[in-house]
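Researcher: Go.
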Amino acid sequence: DSAEALASVVFENTERCNPKCLRILLENISGLTIDADFTVELIPEINVAVASFIKNIDTKEFVEKCSQHKRVREFNMTARLLESTQSIKAENLPESISSDYLTVYFESPRNGGGPVADVQLFPEENSAIITFCDHKGNS
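Model: Structure:
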């Protein structure tokens, strides 16, 4: 199952390291190539980045390497494994979206989904929180 195989590492306190620098730093530490072997998603609102590994690596060993790396420490960043979650946030949704549509969409195996327990719509933000019955359907 591809959703299970994708391992992710969270980097916190990323504000002192610009996005391009962070990508190069992660390539240097991992020995892997951005886009081919892993992707990086930035969440600037909370000074966090998430590296998701397409290539199979020992993420615990990678987190340990990051914690000991001179540049990571200079930037005061921390690295940890991304824990499984049962909820995701969908953003930039059309105003007319319904909770029924989102339920059916996220339950579709073609979209990497699984059984949905709950959908909370936030029309003022054009977003929703989708809660799955188990953490396998949150790719």
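Model: The chain has two domains: 7-81, 87-132.
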